Structure formats: C-alpha cells, structure tokens
Amino acid sequence: xxxxxxxxxxxxxxxxxxxxVYGDPEVMRYVAYGNAASATESATMVNDYIQHQRSHGYSFxxxxxxxxxxxxxxxxxxxxxxxxxxxxxxxxxxWGHGLATEVGHVCLAAAFGRxxxxxxxxxxxxxxxxxxxxxxxLGFRFHGxxxxxxxxxxxxLITADDWRRRTASAQHLSGFSGHFGEHPRAN
Length: 187
Prior knowledge:
Residues 5-161 form the N-acetyltransferase domain. By secondary structure, this protein is of the alpha+beta class. It has a single domain (5-174), classed as 3-Layer(aba) Sandwich (Aminopeptidase). 37% of the residues lie in helices and 28% in strands. The chain has helices at 15-22, 25-28, 39-56, 99-112, 129-138, 160-174, and strands spanning 5-9, 60-65, 71-80, 83-90, 119-124, 141-148, 151-159. The protein has a 7-stranded mixed β-sheet, sandwiched between helices. Strand 4 (83-90), helix 4 and strand 5 form a beta-alpha-beta unit. It is globular and about 40 Å long. The two termini are 16 Å apart. The model is unreliable at 174-187 (pLDDT under 50).
C-alpha cells in the first residue's frame, strides 16, 4: 500500500472494472499485442491472474485508488522461464499523476521483500518513452533489445541487490528510517 494506492489479488468480480481499462485502445496500444481487449478477453485475463497467484504466490494485482475505492489498473509480475517480469497498466484518466512509479515502488518492495525474487525484467515498446522513464525511476537498467508480442521491445532489468542498494541510499539521503508501505498480500 502507498499513500494513494493499494494492490491486491484480482477477484472474479473485477472483470467489468478492469475491462474499462483493457477495453480502451489508447491504454492498450503498447500492451501485449497492442489491441484493446474484448469483455471476454478481459475476464480471461483476470481468471489467469487468479490462477497465477495461486500457483506462484504473485501475479498481476488489481490497483485500487484508495481515495475512491476504484480499480484503476493492474501491476505486478508474471513468471517466466528464469524469473519474473514486471508490468503495469493504468486507466488513461490516471496517467500523468505519478501513479505508475508509485505502484511500481509497492510492487518492487513486495518482489524483493516478502517474495524474495532475485530480479525482475520488464519490456517496453520503444515508442513508449513514458514507461521507459517509469522503469528508470524505479531503478531498472536497459538490458538490450528483444522481440516480444511480434514487435521490437527494449528489455530492462533490476536485481534485488540493485534495488536494496538504491533503497538504502535513498533512505540515507532522505533521513527516512521506515519502510515504503505495506506489501500486497498473497492469498
């Protein structure tokens, strides 16, 4: 949890709320294959996230705006051979408010804290510099080019050790002695 956001595992009753995000062509143009999802596809994704959470103890989680209780997107991880990949998708009306970076901090704290993941990758379509900036703010490093979802992407990487050094340095410089919020709960 952060000041403005909470993350939690998806529930079946989230189908309609997340479809408002996944069904928006502008939101989805750089996500996966770049197409808006149908209501059935959105429901399938939520069901897949629920199963992934059961199997791995993490998944893409529902992002809830604390002030309204609205589900405004997803953020989290998908297991891949050799590790986990970080990603997020937020409703267009919430872009430009620092929420992607904020929810990224919550997710990384969970990944490298309670979940004990050794590292994370992320991919960004090179035509999406805003997401590349979010990854940079979170401490990810550019790690080359790749082809994902049938088109070129940039791959980014962060290790648990890099994150811990970065977090310790930021806390030292700010005089902050606490931790960054609560971690999402895995059910």
